[in-house]
């Protein structure tokens, strides 16, 4: 449905090859521009360096972020962290001097639209804010699938231009150890779940013998219970399916991750937070005339069968509670996996998704809980 118009454009002879390449990128989540085939790029969007650390030599497949330095990078920068050469005072390579024993490790996100940081700017929907300037970033947004991974909570690395600051796990690791510069991968997709992540994970780039260990965040926080079906409960992932999907993914990681890595399983969100805090507020579309609430928006999306989550974005309290009950069951599966399953190259931890705790902290700072949710879709965590 999404690509109907796109496919029509692709019938022109001069565009068919380009369209096929774009379809390949969207399907496989690999960079559009990657001349050496190492899965890293010098181009920002179309799964480029907004999603993975920027390549510093796209003509050499042995040069990419995250690898252990080649001969301490005496002559060139093999891992793109900006550190190479020899100190003329003592003849010691800078990489050895600064990074030896520093326990360098990258950060990888396996996630969904929340991790990819899905965002539709409010100024695109708010009449009083619309202007040519407000749509200036439209091409970039579309070529990043309406995601903004460069600002995300796990792999964000740029100053945010969409409200709030960028404070990511990657930036914290980088501040602690500059040898980690550019060692990030955001392998997320809109609609990502424990099921389709089994295909998505194949775009993961890590060499078990040549690269540094990594911290991998597994965070499909909603789509295993969220769907747009009217019989939404019947289409939710079961605990048995969740266990099978996640263990398969972890076994795949065990065959790819260097020894000494870590995996953190993130529990599902309790999405009742959304209805509780937004349903009677005005959506950006209705702020001018005060005539469209989030409750009405949710009902409209549900009617069109394009709701991001029929189980939570509904006035039916019983259905919201049942959806949260299933989410808790799936989180408990993740918790049990972290407790009982063992792997050769990494240890496994479990962490709850701390939306309510975050809201409590935000309220103590003088904020309102609704500010933590994306204003246009009323579903995803916001940049705040």
Oligomer: single chain
Q: What is the annotated CATH architecture of the largest domain? A: 3-Layer(aba) Sandwich
Structural class: alpha/beta
Q: What are the low-pLDDT stretches, counting only 5+ consecutive residues below 50?
A: none
Organism: Oreotrochilus melanogaster
Keywords: Hydrolase
Protein name: AOAH hydrolase
Pfam family, one: Lipase_GDSL
Furnish the topology, listing elements before pairings.
Elements: H1 4-9, H2 16-28, H3 94-99, E1 106-111, H4 113-116, H5 138-143, H6 169-176, E2 184-188, H7 197-200, E3 214-219, H8 239-254, E4 261-266, H9 272-278, H10 294-303, H11 317-340, E5 346-351, H12 355-364
Parallel strand pairs: 1-2, 1-3, 3-4, 4-5
Helix pairs in contact: 8-11
Describe this structure in words.
The chain has two domains: 1-30, no CATH class; 106-381, Rossmann fold, CATH 3.40.50. The protein has twelve helices and five strands. Strands 2-1-3-4-5 form a five-stranded parallel sheet, sandwiched between helices. Helix 8 packs parallel to helix 11. The chain starts with a helix and ends in a 20-residue tail after the last helix. Strand 3 (214-219), helix 8 and strand 4 form a beta-alpha-beta unit. With 384 residues, the chain is of the alpha/beta class. The protein is globular. The chain has helices at residues 4-9, 16-28, 94-99, 113-116, 138-143, 169-176, 197-200, 239-254, 272-278, 294-303, 317-340, 355-364; strands spanning 106-111, 184-188, 214-219, 261-266, 346-351. It is 30% helix and 8% strand. One of its GO terms (molecular function) is acyloxyacyl hydrolase activity. It comes from Oreotrochilus melanogaster. Keywords: Hydrolase. InterPro entries: AOAH, GDSL, SGNH_hydro_sf. This is AOAH hydrolase.
């Amino acid at each position: 449905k999404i690509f109907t118009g796109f496919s029509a454009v692709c019938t022109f002879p001069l565009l068919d090859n380009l369209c096929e390449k774009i379809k390949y990128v969207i399907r496989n989540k690999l960079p559009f521009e990657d001349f050496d085939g190492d899965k890293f790029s010098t181009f920002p969007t179309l799964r480029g360096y907004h999603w993975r650390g920027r390549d510093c030599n796209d003509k050499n497949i042995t040069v990419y972020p995250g690898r252990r330095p080649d001969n301490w990078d005496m002559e060139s920068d093999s891992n793109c962290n900006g550190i190479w050469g020899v100190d003329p005072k003592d003849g010691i390579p800078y990489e050895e001097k600064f990074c030896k024993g520093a326990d360098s490790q990258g950060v990888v996100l396996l996630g969904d639209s929340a991790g990819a940081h899905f965002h539709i700017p409010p100024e695109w929907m708010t009449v009083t804010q619309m202007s040519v300037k407000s749509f200036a970033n439209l091409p970039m947004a579309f070529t990043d699938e309406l995601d903004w991974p460069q600002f995300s909570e796990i792999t964000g690395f740029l100053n945010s231009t969409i409200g709030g600051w960028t404070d990511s796990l990657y930036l914290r690791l980088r501040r602690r150890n500059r040898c980690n510069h550019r060692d990030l991968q955001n392998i997320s997709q809109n609609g990502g779940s424990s099921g389709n992540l089994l295909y998505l994970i194949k775009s993961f780039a890590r060499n078990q013998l040549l690269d540094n260990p990594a911290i991998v965040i597994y965070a499909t926080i909603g789509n295993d219970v969220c769907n747009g079906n009217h019989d939404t409960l019947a289409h939710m992932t079961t605990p048995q399916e969740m266990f099978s999907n996640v263990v398969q993914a972890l076994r795949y990681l065990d065959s790819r991750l260097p020894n000494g890595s870590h995996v953190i399983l993130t529990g599902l969100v309790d999405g009742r937070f959304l209805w509780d805090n937004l349903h009677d507020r005005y959506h950006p579309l209705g702020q001018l005339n005060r005539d469209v609430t989030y409750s009405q928006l949710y009902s409209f999306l549900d009617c069109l069968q394009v709701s991001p989550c029929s189980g939570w974005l509904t006035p039916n309290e019983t259905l919201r509670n049942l959806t949260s009950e299933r989410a808790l069951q799936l989180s408990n599966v993740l918790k049990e996996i972290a407790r009982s399953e063992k792997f050769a190259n990494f240890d496994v931890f479990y962490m709850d998704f701390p939306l309510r705790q975050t809201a409590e902290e935000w309220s103590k700072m003088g904020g309102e809980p609704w500010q933590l949710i994306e204003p246009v879709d009323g579903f995803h965590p916001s940049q705040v």
